[in-house]
Structure formats: structure tokens, C-alpha cells
């Protein structure tokens, strides 16, 4: 039976065996269902927009300002297969503003604007949990009453206080000397998040070829120990 459809092979042969112009037909896909999505016109409220511009003018490019960031994008959960419930507790929560280092994009501190809704019992409980998350991870969180105008001096003082706070030793990527677990043959735990570690080999730099223990959660966690 003759095939009236030349197919892909015939089209391919025509492409290389003829100088004639090739006409390619495009068939539109089946009509998709109408999706009920629209772009919001109020991504930032009036108070949030005012605070954003204040941060922008105050920082003068010293930090990157990220509005409305999910906590699950800022923090990770150690042993996620075991701590699923703890991931779910941060997955649907966000912080109003996150300040990041402009070179590494590493989170430096965060701001929360508290409007009247934060006086509700459920928000009080939510805020207390979020504060515990930030405190546990060693990331400063500053709470500011929501208003349409802010005092620049107060914001500058809050940023300076947070940035100049003593660093959390557990939050630094500094090798920890081997301890009793090395001779006992035990798997070391990460000094930053407490997860298990794996033996790795440095591929570049001054310590290329040397082995070290790295956190299993890398690159989310960069805790290391000497092998």
C-alpha cells in the first residue's frame, strides 16, 4: 500500500539530496485547558515596598535584598529522610526580606515586618518557631513593626548590630582536628549540622590530593573535618 506520508526519512533525504526549498509544516498541539493564573499587582504591600526602598538606600549595594524568601530555600534539614516533619514545618513559611553577600549570595541576616496579624495566637506560635529556626542556624533575624515610614538610623543600627555579632563557631567552614573517632574507626559527624560525613579527596588548591571528611549535605552544608 502506498504511503502518502513521506515521513521523517524522506524529509531527511530531501534535505541532503535536493536543492529545492524545503517547506516544514508545524501542527499546533491540542488546545490546552485554560489555566486560572494571573500576575499579582501587589507583590509587596505598601509597608513592605517602603521598607524595601529604605533597605536599598541604606545598604547602597553592600548587600543583595531578596524579598519573600521561603525558609526551605534558606535552611536545610539534616537527615531529611528522618526529619521529614521538620522540613514540612519550614516549607510553607517565608521571611519578608533576606540580605545576602553580593559576591557569594550567602545569607547574612533577615528582616520580618510585624503587622497587626502577628498578634494572633497562631502567628505568635509561628513567629516563635521561626525565631528558633534562625537562632539554631546562627542567622540573625530582626523583627520590625510594619509601618509606612521608618527611621533610617534604627535600620542602620539593627544591621550593624547583626553584622558585628560574634560569629558562630559552628557556622564556619573551618576544618576540625581529628578526635577519638578517627582511631576508633567511627564515622565522624559534621561540626555544623551533626549529619554523617564522607571521606573525600581535595582536587585542587594547596591541599590537592589530601583526604578530608566532608558533610554528606554538601553543598548545602560545607562542614569539614581533617581525615
Question: Can you lay out the helices and strands and say which pair or pack?
Answer:
Blueprint: H1 7-17, H2 46-59, E1 64-70, H3 71-74, H4 84-91, E2 94-100, E3 107-114, H5 121-137, E4 141-145, H6 152-163, H7 180-184, E5 197-201, E6 211-215, E7 224-226
Parallel strand pairs: 3-4
Antiparallel strand pairs: 1-2, 2-3, 5-6, 6-7
Sheet with most strands: strand arrangement: 1-2-3-4
**Gross morphology:** extended
What is the number of E strands? 7
Strand-and-helix sequence, N→C? Answer: HHEHHEEHEHHEEE
Q: Indicate the structural class.
A: alpha+beta
Relative strand content: 15-25%
What low-confidence regions span 5 or more consecutive residues with pLDDT below 50?
167-184
Q: How many domains would you count in the coordinates?
A: 2
By oligomeric state, this entry counts as single chain
- The Rg value, from CA coordinates, equals 27 Å
**Helix percent band:** 25-40%
In DSSP terms, counting alpha (H) and pi (I) runs of 4 or more, how many helices? 7
Biggest sheet: strands, sense, closure?
4 strands, mixed
Distance between the amino and carboxyl termini: 72 Å
Output mean pLDDT: 79
Describe the structure in your own words:
This protein is of the alpha+beta class. It folds into 2 domains: 120 residues; 61 residues, no CATH class. The protein is built from 7 helices and 7 strands. The strands form 2 sheets. A 4-stranded mixed β-sheet has the order 1-2-3-4. The protein has a 3-stranded antiparallel β-sheet with strand order 5-6-7, with no helix packed on it.
